Records
---
Amino acid sequence: MKWSVFPKRFGLFPYIFLVYIGFPAVYLTKESGLKQLIGYGMLLLFLVTYRQLYFLIGKRNFTYWLAVQMAIIFIFSLFYHLNYMFLGFFPANFIGWYQDKTGFRRGLICLVVAEILPFIVHVIRTKTFFTPTELIYFVPFLLIMLISPFGIRSMNRRMELEKELDRANQKIEELVKREERVRIARDLHDTLGHTLSLLTLKSQLVQRLTATDPERARLEAKEMEVTSRAALKQVRELVTDMRAATITEELLQVQQILRAAGITYHYDGDSDFSSVSPFTQNIIGMCIREAATNVVKHSQATHCSIAIKHFSGKMNLIIHDDGMGLRNNHVFGNGLRGMEERLALVDGGLVLSNHNGTVLEINVPIIKKQ
């Protein structure tokens, strides 16, 4: 992994903020001896915390480094000069990155203590209150400092909402694409079903006419050729406009769906489906998706396994969950009927059974591509 001073996703912002480190560095030149040495040591540690906090946003150690940073500001303000309190703009920025309310409130309270307590100690120590000029100098900046975490947090929440909106839009686009795939599959079914029925009737007619009326049989056979070519053209047009979902894509999607539902997942089987046609992969993929949806909605399972095996001219797929299984009076629902209709397009079939849960077995003949 390539080393970098700050995460690239923050751009130039962290570098611009470093300008404000120059002021305490100048103030330390007025100190001498051990106090000056300790001061530069703390300033160096402050720079380290500043860098680390950018890399640890949202992680466990983030709070520890933030506490160190505020402790350094507190020591500087208490034992060196009150002007060091302006370093509080650094932790104020990082406090705004807390996503949980508890962490945000604790960080804000600690910042208030680290900034206000040195003022109180200064008044007690000098036994004099601040002049109006000093109040005008400190108070506005202090208020801005304590309000800024709310602004940073609001900005981060808005950015997160925009990301979630982008993800939602991508999901909607994907759902629209999948719906279109289903529509095209149904169009294929309707088109091919009608055409194949017509070809079946004509082939039976040709068989009867071969002996009695060879000329008409020849004409009917010619019509069969024209009809089959038209159907082939329709199929090619539909498939050209369709990017079929692959089995691999659907398996990844199913893994995410099951894990999101708190169901453990295990896959056993082949990983190369290049020998399966895109249309068949689309049909099998939709069946896998429908089966996973049924597991999430109806099974009350805690574990689901999927196994896919290639045999000679056939693909065998088994989806097994450890849920409550099938009821005695089980009737196929719309989802399973849809799976049966899709599988019928590729001469496939399914069997549903009970075995320590529900077992769905799908068998599809595979024509090897030459």
---
Amino acid sequence: MASRQRGKLSSWKDDRGFGFIKPDDGSQDVFLHISALERLSRRPKVNDMILYERATESNGKVRAAKVSIQGVSPRSLTTKTAGSRYRKRSSDQVKNLLSAVSGIGALVAVLLSVLLSIEADWFHDKLAPFVNANIANSNCTVKGNISMNTGRKLYHLPGMEDYETTVIDSQKRERWFCTESEAIAGGWQKAPH
């Protein structure tokens, strides 16, 4: 069993659902995504004391897992909040919910369960043109595109060799970032110079 770590939330982008934890042990900041939070009664805030386990991804990046906010109690049901992905309910929770309602209530519960289990990628595909248009208009200048040759997710900074000719196509799941660290946190790599 991994040991629980503790640190202070040093940055948080609530609209994006991610931030960084400054560990108490002084080690490198740890990436935190909203999906790693245990069911809580409120969203995280900068300077919250965070309890977490370190998880290392296949690419070697460290992220926080099994996260809770010190002093914040859990909530009874998992729900969607702004900027976060829907969390899937366990099959036992869905069965209990369905058995508690009847008639129209059961139909509504089934529809809600289906909607809650749909991956956020579907929403991204349908809403990306509108979201990316807004982001581009809000002075975000880091371009995240997908290489046609390799399929790699690459980001381009203003002034880089291919920056001016790089076109962002939201239908191909390409996007704009406001900072380089945001692109890195999203799993994008810096384009070769």
---
Amino acid sequence: MARGRPSKKSHIIDTALTLFSRVGYQGTSIDQVVVAAKVSKPTVYSNFSSKQILWHQALTRILENAETDLAGLNDQTKSPLQQWLTIWNVWLGDKNRLAVYRIMLGESHKMEETSFSLFKQLEALFDKALDSLLAGLDKPLSPAQIYVLKATSKEALLMPNLYASQALTQDANLSAELTALLNSLLSQD
């Protein structure tokens, strides 16, 4: 293996991530990756036999970055809501993760099972971070309460970021509403 090959492969993945993020899966072609990465088409194809394989490698990179981003976010000095919003802020702060959601929601008909599997792993990683926080609460929530909190957060935080690119996690009204929801869930018997 050539000495520069791993860094070229990484460079190609980084370039593809930028393109996937900007124009989606369907809007990205190998030719665009070649031009943007300033490499030859044989170089791309010697590392990735198809766009789908390149996409899988990009998803794997996003998954690895997400693991790093979420590691050690549990901060006992913050309230549960502050920790909840911190996890969401970190999650929504990565344009590549948001692109994955847009692609998997809007272009799923183009995806193979491997893509769905990697996406499920990505979502499971995020759920694990949220579940870890919830497990540390003084009063445990029921599965139904956890579902309501996650569904409300996803609708209030993820969806607006996907479609309007607005970071609602800093909105004082939203924070107050999530605080009220979390408090009501914690106070129920």
---
Amino acid sequence: MSKKLFIETLGCAMNVRDSEHMIAELNAQEGYELTDDAREADLILINTCSVREKPVHKLFSELGGFNKLKKEGAKIGVCGCTASHLGKEIIKRAPYVNFVLGARNVSKIGEVIYRDKAVEIDIDFDESQFAFKDFRSSPYKAYINISIGCDKQCTFCIVPKTRGDEISIPADLIVAEARKAAESGAKEVFLLGQNVNNYGRRFSGQHEKVNFTELLRRVSAVEGIERIR
């Protein structure tokens, strides 16, 4: 029998894409299959948001509920921006949580599930060139990250402290992902970033310098893509 994964996603479209990445990695590496019933899950993940205060409060009430209904031996993991923000405090307040995985550390999901009380929240971790396995919630639309993090320091926003400094994802990886999505039926792509107009200002390695306008031109040239958002 395959292992079952239940995942609850709170917050923005970028969190939705992070959840899709975790689903894909856990399926490919560990054979997890999705379930919409947390009671039958072997692994319960909450992908959190910390932009507003209410989702943070909601997290701990949700955790308590999942702890009561989970089956024996099931693990609970907290991921996303609140994980980055609170870190070890989550396990301190909810000791039944098995691991905490920050928003900048999504690619580590396959390893933290085996490290009890693991806390991976490095906001300087660079996964801009990590080749995630493929999973999309909808066959007709695709979320594609074009950058991670944010360089702005707006007084009302916690994102730079949960997702780190801004790094653009190489254009060839983005176009390849758009092409792969189109080949499997996607008609619409959502290009995701905290500040998409900044695209191309910083890459983590030696990559072709492409700005947002040029990126739009390249994605729009992908056969089968009818709308870009």
